[in-house]
TrEMBL record:
Taxonomic lineage of the native organism: Bacteria, Bacillati, Bacillota, Bacilli, Bacillales
Species of the source: Laceyella tengchongensis
Name of protein: Short-chain dehydrogenase
Keyword RNA-binding on entry: no
Keyword Iron: no
Pfam families: adh_short (PF00106)
Family affiliation: Belongs to the short-chain dehydrogenases/reductases (SDR) family.
Amino acid sequence: MGIALITGASEGIGKELATLFAAAGHDVVLVARDQAKLHAVAQSLKKNHGIQAHVIVQDLGQPHAAETVYRTCQTNGWTIDYLVNNAGFGLLGPFTTTNLSVEADMITVNVTALTQLTKLFVPHMVASRSGRILQVASLASFMPGPLMSVYYATKAYVLSFSEALQQELRGTGVTVTALCPGPTNTKFKHRAKMNNPPHVDKSALDVRRVAQAGFNGMMKGQTVVIPGLAYRFFVFACRFLPRSWVARIVHFNQKQRL
Ligand SMILES: NC(=O)c1ccc[n+]([C@@H]2O[C@H](COP(=O)([O-])OP(=O)(O)OC[C@H]3O[C@@H](n4cnc5c(N)ncnc54)[C@H](OP(=O)(O)O)[C@@H]3O)[C@@H](O)[C@H]2O)c1
């Protein structure tokens, strides 16, 4: 069936994606920092779906993290056919006052580790003429993000990188999909220090629905997946607005979350 490696699988969208792989009969390799949560997810997947679930406890913000993850898979003979780069986080606040070391860590996790893991795992996929890569980007990928400027920029990178790689790999049997969800009901907002007004929380997407859309899109080899009709329309409409207007709209929305 093929093994799936999922980063950020201890919670949220990553945990739901791991569940979908397990339900489809795939063995999984789960990566994140929280050992107890990862083992709990692995145990539950093994019990409920009868698959093998392996755990790699790794902070992807550490130097050489991607190499460590890759070498652990090599050493254990886990051949990765599905790579899901989902681990990531954001930080709300004016750039003049946010913490640089948190933002540097964010760039490492959201951009560097994602790129390095893709670089390390894609050659085998191309050699075997089969593989699927899912990069978790965001609605933020399509616009500038005042008060979350670094996070939005990392997600713009993820989308651009994924679209380019999907084109480069055409005809190889390997596909790259960027999943671009809008606000989704997970711990993301707490980690990002966002105080969402109630109407934003009410309209947040269901995490299972987001994971299912990403999983389906990846399996079909789609380039970009935006869950929810309203969000697809929003991204479409943004194409016709000056970027400076879009930045103002996002700024207005983010101010309400401070
Ligand atoms: N929720 C949203 O509104 C939303 C919208 C668009 C895009 N996204 C994207 O979706 C992805 C998943 O986020 P989520 O909403 O599921 O958030 P979440 O519930 O906070 O989960 C984030 C996952 O990433 C892992 N992670 C964070 N930092 C890590 C690090 N340094 N090393 C290894 N793993 C790390 C966390 O595990 P540990 O803490 O155990 O390490 C956790 O499993 C992120 O890339 C996020 O940017 C989220």
